[in-house]
Design goal:
heterodimer; A: about 500 residues; Methylamine Dehydrogenase, Chain H; five-stranded antiparallel beta sheet; 34 strands; B: mainly beta; Immunoglobulin-like; 2 helices; globular
């Protein structure tokens, strides 16, 4: 009881992150710097503000596969600027949901802001009111975590709807046809305003695993939903120092979380990003393994300190579990803030790598094998989730020039470490790509790799389609919009 | 721990009921009521010491979408602060979810909000003169 009370208190304190006094710090200086540098460097358009509704038919080049039909739902931060001020961190922007409909030889694009209460209130006020992840603002007090829900991280088609997902609050339900916002989703009456992460995993039976955590709450919330969207199991697992968990993986028997060593500072004058202090000199990266049957903690492995956002997939291998992850040396969180004020991120060989981690329960050791260099946005084929996989798609950087720009598409063979790669070259900035299996696919490469790339020289956004078995041949089809669509973090393809 | 205390207090916000007898009437309009489910629970306090702990008076009314008006009659003229929540599921408490987030609508007079918890009595304080007063709060 007492412990629960304390937990609730901590949770509530967190709900109020950023409610304290201090000047609003989304500032006109950040705005000025960005726009000054954007004039000289069109590559920065990747981080530019989005105006509003977008609708357009793309110009198709090459050969669209006849059996590639469906909707590619994606989401990312669209609004960074309001009232002459600009957010400080790439993760702060309000969600802009997008759908690329592919079929009948055509590709049609639509984009709509997720109409959260925050977007509506701030739009009406003509300026930012609430704290964002990396920008401390407190012009209006917040009532709970969903007050600051920007719904900007992923767009999940599930059970006939689509859901705009964030990390610290509820899913926001959208109409899959119009992308109009239906409202805040409570999966069950007692789960209102619960953190529901942006990286749920749909496994082969159509059900969904997800988690949530309130930074500083030291509790991992686990959700299991069936294919009909009903919550069948939940659990709360205590994990000390659980201050930043963005993604996870599911294997046949386990849920695995990689918890980087952040400490939560108490200073309420700082943004949440600023309060997450890197503690890699003192503490390890932890692999926290939860048993799917009991939803209890099975084992914790310690690894050299690295920071992490994304994982690929996991599978059981005898008495071990193997999983892929993209690890970053040191604290990666401040990096995505740089371009917000017009500074390009620097390319450093070895700063980041995609690795395969083997968790050996008997020895308690976590072993690592390097699969790929500087990279991000790992994805596996949807039919492989939680089972043995052999292919992992990542976006990489060719390392030409000093700036970090993700501009290569790669399908890694996770057994051999060899990658089938294509480089888009200068002027391109490539976003997440997802594997789309052909109907009845007999392997992970029996299908397509579909993604989006930004042509920053022309200010246009392009949908890309590769044959998954031959990435190096380049895209077999490109569908080019006449305009720039906001950059997305994550998305999912729903076949029809 | 202060946060702990603050939250415990929020949970106890609407705990007890007081009584009174005097002259001024107070009309309370609660705006932004989201649905007709359950009831609105209003607690009125008359000092910083009793604020969020021991209501001077309490009123409840069935919820109705939009605005709902309640009255507190015969109040002594003076300073007050009020807290209101929409007990949409009618369980008699302001619900929190499992990670401690408040999940029913609530508001304080002057639409005051505090740092990390409820506002101060000072921020929520309003005057009821001998001739009576009308205040409104917004649950949104």
């Amino acid at each position: 009881m007492n412990q629960r009370r304390q937990f609730l208190s901590r949770g509530f304190a967190l709900a109020a992150v950023g409610m304290c006094a201090g000047p609003a710090r989304a500032d006109s200086e950040t705005f000025r710097l960005f726009h000054q540098r954007l004039e000289r460097d069109p590559r920065l358009s990747f981080y530019a503000d989005a105006a509003g509704d977008l609708d357009g038919e793309a110009l198709v080049w090459g050969s669209l596969p006849r059996d590639l039909n469906g909707a590619f739902f994606r989401n990312g931060p669209g609004r960074f600027e309001l009232g002459g001020e600009r957010y400080h961190h790439w993760f702060d922007g309000d969600g802009f949901a997008q759908r690329w409909r592919i079929g009948g030889g055509k590709v049609v694009h639509r984009g709509r802001f997720v109409l959260t209460k925050k977007l509506e209130e701030e739009g009406k006020a003509g300026r930012f009111l609430y704290p964002a992840f990396g920008t401390q603002i407190n012009r209006r007090a917040m009532k709970n975590n969903d007050t600051v829900n920007v719904a900007n991280t992923n767009l999940l088609p599930f059970n006939g709807s689509v859901y705009a997902l964030w990390e610290g609050g509820s899913a926001i339900e959208l109409d899959p046809e119009t992308l109009a916002t239906r409202g805040v989703k409570a999966w069950r009456a007692d789960l209102k305003a619960m953190p529901f992460s942006a990286h749920p995993k749909i496994d082969p039976d159509g059900g969904l695993w997800n988690f949530g955590n309130a930074p500083g709450g030291d509790r991992l919330v686990i959700y299991r939903l069936n294919a009909a969207g009903e919550v069948t199991r939940t659990a709360i697992v205590p994990v000390p120092q659980l201050n930043m968990v963005h993604d996870f993986v599911v294997s046949g028997r386990h849920l695995i979380f990689l918890v980087p060593p952040y400490t939560m500072l108490g200073d309420p004058g700082l943004s949440l990003a600023e309060r997450l202090r890197w503690d890699g000199g003192a503490r390890p990266l932890r692999a926290v393994v939860i048993d799917k049957n009991t939803l209890e903690l099975r084992q914790v492995f310690e690894m050299p300190a690295r920071s992490i956002f994304h994982l690929g997939n996991a599978f059981e291998d005898g008495a071990c579990t193997r999983l892929d992850a993209v690890l970053h040396e040191g604290d990666i969180l401040p990096d995505p803030a740089l371009p917000m004020r017009g500074e390009m991120r620097q390319y450093h060989e070895g700063r980041s790598a995609t690795v395969q981690i083997t968790l050996d329960y008997a020895s308690g050791q976590a072993r690592e094998a390097r699969l790929f260099g500087v990279s991000e946005f790992p994805r596996v084929a949807p039919q492989a989730v939680s089972t043995r996989h052999r292919k992992l798609a990542v976006i990489g950087a060719d390392g030409v020039g000093k700036d970090l720009i993700l501009n290569t598409v790669n399908l890694i063979d996770t057994d051999t470490g060899k990658a089938d790669s294509y480089a888009f070259g200068a002027g391109w900035h490539v976003e997440e790509h997802v594997l789309v299996p052909r109907r009845g696919a007999h392997s992970e490469t029996d299908g397509y790799l579909v993604g989006v790339a930004q042509d920053t020289r022309r200010g246009q956004t392009v949908l890309t389609v590769f044959d998954a078995h031959n990435i190096k041949a380049g895209p077999r089809a490109l569908a080019r919009l006449s305009y720039r669509a906001p950059v997305c973090f994550h998305g999912n393809f729903l076949p029809t | 721990m202060t946060r702990h205390t603050a939250t415990a207090l929020i949970a106890l916000l609407f705990a007890a009921v007081g009584a009174s007898a005097s002259a001024a009437d107070l009309t309370i309009t609660v705006e932004g009521v989201a649905s007709a489910d359950g009831r609105l629970m209003v607690a009125l306090y008359n000092s910083a010491d009793t604020f969020r702990r021991k209501p001077y008076a309490a009123r409840t009314a069935p919820a109705s979408p939009g605005a709902v008006t309640l009255e507190v009659k015969d109040l002594p003229a003076g300073d007050y602060a009020l807290a209101v929540y929409h007990d949409a599921n009618g369980n008699g408490k302001l619900d929190m979810n499992a990670v401690g987030m408040l999940v029913e609508d609530y508001a304080f007079s002057n639409n005051a909000m505090g740092n990390h918890s409820a506002p101060s009595y000072e921020a929520a304080r309003f005057q009821v003169p001998a001739g009576g007063a009308a205040v409104s709060v917004n649950l949104r």
